[in-house]
Specification:
six-stranded antiparallel sheet; binds beta-D-glucopyranose; binds 1-deoxynojirimycin
């Protein structure tokens, strides 16, 4: 069942009923100001940091769901409604929500009145613009009132939700004409304030929540709206809000637009005040001027669209499969950019008050947006590398505002160092900017202890070698990619973190997955050593990788598939010998991606085992059989009910590793089948089962052992976005940058018989026309009329367009 449809030419998903199986959200903002917005207008806004600079309030985990948002109420002779359906939930005669790239448009109609709400963050501004267009579609003149409503958060979202003894006394506002200023704590330590403005004279306003809503009412029936009159309340403490009241009369067929601006302003300390106690509003006024007319809103929307048109033109495909086209051309890269901005901070599953930025997550996210935002990727790499320790290990997370490593989550996740190599390699392949390797980068942000980025990569690589276990496999440390495989944790008490508690510091628990990474990512390090003229280091690296490959085949092989790990006691994890958890997805993907066992047939065997034991109609589960009881020696993975999260959920992040692995063994059918199983556009028809947005990936879909297989959770902020983009664009469609050329190596089944890819790469556009037999054979390339050997289009510095014909 569907709850809407794709509109590809507008690059929008159109939701046609408010009753989606979960709030389906979108993100506003592409620079410093961001908002989350659901199809009913709920969500919140913040400046840069969702925890420390939260503008509007949102209550998590509540019923009803819309506990905070930007709401517009229409009141006409006692009848009142909200065009976004919620929070009033008066029946609408028509409803539509269009989530576009960086904007959302919600239209509701009731009894001949139509209200269209456009929400966006214009480029170049720290503000959300809400344009309300009112249309009289009836044949009588209509006179009614429009009330706006946002509720302010007292900046620190965590404190706001918890420290009531203080913050119920701190709220302060100023009202001047049609602008409501939120200035809590501005008097002391803060130099920032927010405002909510409308470009028309108001009939009244409210800034105190209790006055607007009523103490025992709710947002669905606020006192002021019910009574049709503002109270002109001025908040002192309690809960500051901003509501305008506008009186509107519309002749039949007439239309009227109002522009509301929710802005964030920082004033230099010397310019904070206009006079004692009164904020200096000069910067706010300038922002207000910028959006005082609908034409300015149109221009801003146009600007936003052009921005996305330019970004998305860098990789496009035209094929007969419209779902493939829409994911590759629009939604997958869009989600990648959102993960770049948000990391794992703010979604309807991440509260914005929790996690910082992951060392591992950020490196992987980079794979999905480096071709779109290379300069930002460069900065991100330097930021990440600056938190690395001198021995090559890393803090697991760092804080976006300070860019410092975060000790709360600690370090010792032994896969982290390798991801840095992968991120840097992807950046250099994209840009050819080897200069980044010479950048001087601190260890642990200590400017007295710096080294070149290349040296950081050496430390990453050596960290694996310096931490080998009894079988010669890499030690897992706190955990590897699977942060729920806590082999040194032994947690028996409920109130401690699996990820930071380590009761045993043994050097026995080993990870076959990190070994696979070492063999897959290690060659990139060797290649970079060669490029830097460090041939000795390159040779040593290749020797160590070859050695590791042998170790994996000897100690990491279980007979029919790759083992997952050895635990603290040296027992196998992910083996036939185990009671539960006999086979894991991660080592199968990563070892085959590295080509381990390709010649011996073990790679094929491992992938066949995945098919047999892990594949389901909804995707590939992480492990099988699911753990049915808690294993103290394994940790968090066995704490989840079977079928969820790491305990045999379909963890969509690692499914693409299997897709890529299938292309390594040249089985296009399987690769594409796995792709279609988890890719949102292909499962739009089962939205009632899947529940999450059909235009973006979710982190997890419940697995076959769950009560409701196929039900997804944790949409938007997941490494799934980047990895699926890598899988589809670089391995299925097969176009990927290498150091000195663009590899064209498609691996798709016959159901996609021909397609054209346009890839902008280092200033030149490569237009690649593919004829595909679907048999997974090697490609034959003709570049600008001349055949080339192999699958690499040489780098062309000429700019313009290079034409490539590819026959598979
Ligand atoms: C989750 C993981 C997550 C980890 C670290 C665990 O509870 O299941 O998916 O990576 O916490 O935040
Ligand atoms: C989510 C984390 O963000 C990611 O780093 C991790 O690898 C997965 N969970 C798997 O456990």
């Amino acid at each position: 069942m569907r709850f809407g449809h794709f509109d590809d030419s507008a690059r929008e998903y159109v939701i046609t009923t408010p009753r989606t199986p979960f709030p389906w959200i979108n993100y506003l903002g592409s620079e410093g100001f961001f908002g989350l917005i659901s199809h009913m207008g709920s969500g919140y806004s913040f400046y840069r940091d969702a925890r420390l600079r939260r503008l509007t309030r949102y209550r998590y985990n509540s019923v009803p769901n819309e506990q905070g948002g930007r709401f517009f109420y229409i009141q006409e002779n006692g009848d009142y409604w909200t065009p976004s359906y919620a929070p009033v939930k008066a029946e609408l005669d028509a409803f539509e929500c269009r989530h576009g790239l960086g904007y959302t448009r919600i239209t509701g109609q009731r009894k001949g009145l139509e209200a269209e709400l456009l929400f966006m963050v214009p480029r170049g501004f720290n503000a959300e613009v809400h344009q309300v267009t009112l249309r009289n579609k009836s044949n009588t003149t209509r006179t009614f009132k429009l009330f706006s409503f946002v509720e302010f958060c007292l900046w620190n979202a965590h404190d706001d939700a918890t420290n009531l003894q203080r913050n119920l006394s701190t709220g302060e506002v100023e009202v001047e004409g049609s602008t409501i200023y939120h200035k809590t704590e501005y008097r002391e330590r803060r130099n920032h304030f927010a405002f909510y403005h409308v470009n028309a004279p108001v009939a009244g306003f409210d800034t105190d929540r209790e006055s607007f809503v009523g103490l025992y009412n709710h947002l669905g029936e606020p006192d002021v709206v019910k009574n049709g009159a503002s109270k002109n309340s001025v908040a002192h403490g309690w809960a500051p809000v901003a509501s305008h009241c506008l009186e509107v009369t519309l002749a039949p067929g007439a239309e009227r637009k109002f522009v509301f601006t929710l802005g964030y302003i920082e004033n230099p300390v010397a310019e904070k005040w206009q006079k004692p106690g009164v904020i200096n509003k000069r910067r706010a006024q300038a922002m207000i001027e910028a959006f005082s007319k609908p034409e300015q809103v149109d221009a801003a929307l146009q600007g936003l669209r052009s921005h996305w048109t330019e970004l998305l033109s860098r990789y496009t495909v035209q094929s007969s499969d419209e779902k493939l086209n829409r994911m590759v051309n629009i939604w997958n890269p869009y989600q990648c950019v959102v993960t770049f901005h948000m990391s794992r901070s703010a979604s309807y599953f991440e509260t914005g008050i929790g996690r910082g930025m992951g060392f591992r997550d950020s490196n992987q996210d980079l794979l999905g947006f480096v071709h779109l935002l290379p300069d930002l990727a460069r900065q991100r790499i330097i930021d990440i590398a600056s938190t690395q320790f001198a021995d090559g290990s890393a803090y697991h997370q760092y804080q976006p505002l300070t860019k410092r490593g975060n000790n709360d989550i600690g370090s010792g996740f032994n896969d982290d160092p390798m991801w840095l190599i992968l991120g840097v390699a992807a950046y250099i392949k994209e840009t050819g900017d080897y200069g980044i390797l010479d950048e001087s980068v601190p260890f642990d942000n200590d400017e007295k202890n710096t080294a070149s980025l290349m040296e950081h990569l050496t430390r990453s690589f050596e960290h694996v070698l310096n931490n080998l276990g009894p079988h010669g496999l890499p030690l897992i440390g706190r955990a590897d990619w699977n942060d729920c495989l806590n082999l040194n944790c032994f947690s028996e008490t409920p109130d401690e973190s699996y990820q930071t508690t380590g009761n045993r510091t043994g050097r026995t628990a080993e990870s076959v997955f990190i070994a696979g990474m070492f063999c897959h990512i290690g060659p990139e390090y060797a290649a970079l050593c060669d490029k830097k003229g460090q041939a000795d280091k390159a040779q040593r690296a290749r020797r160590e990788i070859a050695k590791m490959e042998k170790v994996v085949l000897e100690h990491g092989w279980d007979g029919d598939w790759f083992l997952r790990a050895y635990d603290f006691f040296g027992n196998k994890v992910g083996s036939k010998e185990c009671e539960d958890g006999k086979i894991f997805i991660e080592p199968q993907g990563y070892c085959v991606m590295a080509g381990i066992g390709k010649d011996s047939g073990q790679a094929l065997k491992a992938l066949d085992a995945v098919k047999e034991r892990l594949d389901t109609p909804y995707g590939i589960v992480l492990v099988n059989p699911a753990y049915t009881r808690y294993h103290v020696e394994l940790g968090e993975i066995s704490s989840y009910p079977p079928g969820y999260k790491e305990n045999a959920g379909i963890f969509c992040h690692n499914n693409p590793w299997i897709m890529i692995a299938e292309t390594v063994v040249r089985r296009p059918e399987r690769a594409f089948e796995y792709y279609k199983k988890i890719t949102p556009a292909y499962i739009e028809d089962i939205s009632e089962v899947h529940k999450m947005e059909p235009y973006v990936y979710s982190q997890m879909i419940a697995g076959k052992d769950a009560v409701k297989p196929g039900e997804a959770k944790n949409s938007w902020l997941t490494g799934t976005a980047a990895w699926n983009f890598v899988a589809v664009s670089q391995h299925l469609l097969g176009v990927r940058p290498d150091y000195d050329g663009l590899i064209v190596d498609p691996c798709l089944p016959a159901e996609v018989p021909q397609f054209t890819i346009s890839r902008w790469w280092r200033g030149t556009t490569y237009v690649i026309q593919v004829k595909n037999s679907g048999k997974g054979g090697q490609p034959k390339l003709v570049v600008d009329g001349k055949p080339v050997t192999g699958n690499r289009v040489p780098y062309s510095a000429k700019g313009g367009t290079v034409h490539v014909e590819c026959t598979v």
